[in-house]
Amino acid sequence: MIIKIPFKTPTINHLYGHRMGNPKPYLKNEAKKLREEIKELIINQAFPLFAQQDVKLKVSVEIHEDWFCKDGSVKKKDIANREKFLIDSVFDAIGIDDKLIFEHSMKKIQSDKEFSIIEIEELK
């Protein structure tokens, strides 16, 4: 299963808030809206489900965007900060628990366009 998210996914710093006296972070309204957009994308693409629900999964994530400053240095962008929200949103939309991820990889891909590709497959 390959899922393309055709827009930039913000970092968790922009999507989660904190309340005084409560150590548990909450999803900001922007994050809730973005999660619904991701769910709509996935529902409309009608992906096939895995043969069984308790299968070990391998997930590969590519984040495509411009990773370099004009002077050629690498921008201070951490892809791991985007992974949590993205994976949670995708797995919620397809109705599979992300506890089944046993192998995971992420890549930065240099691009003028901002999007993400998530590939989910059964771990052999």
List the helices and strands and how they pair.
Elements: E1 2-5, H1 12-15, E2 16-19, E3 22-27, H2 29-45, E4 57-65, H3 80-94, E5 101-110, E6 115-122
Parallel strand pairs: 4-5
Antiparallel strand pairs: 1-6, 2-3, 4-6
Explain this structure.
With 124 residues, this protein is an alpha+beta fold. The protein has one domain (2-122): 60s Ribosomal Protein L30, Chain: A. The protein contains three helices and six strands. The protein has helices at residues 12-15, 29-45, 80-94, and strands at 2-5, 16-19, 22-27, 57-65, 101-110, 115-122. Strand 4, helix 3 and strand 5 (101-110) form a beta-alpha-beta unit. Helix 2 (29-45) crosses helix 3 (80-94). The longest helix is centred in the N-terminal third of the chain and has 17 residues, at 29-45. The radius of gyration is 16 Å and the shape is globular. The two termini are 15 Å apart.
State the end-to-end distance. 15 Å
User: Portion of residues in helices?
Assistant: 25-40%
Walk across the major sheet and give the strand order.
1-6-4-5
Structural class computed from helices and strand pairing:
alpha+beta
Summarize model confidence as the mean pLDDT: 85
Q: How large is the radius of gyration?
A: 16 Å
Quote the beta fraction: 25-35%
Largest sheet: 4 strands, mixed
Total count of strands? 6
Q: Using the coordinates above, name the CATH class.
A: Alpha Beta
Please outline what is shown here:
By secondary structure, the protein is an alpha+beta fold.
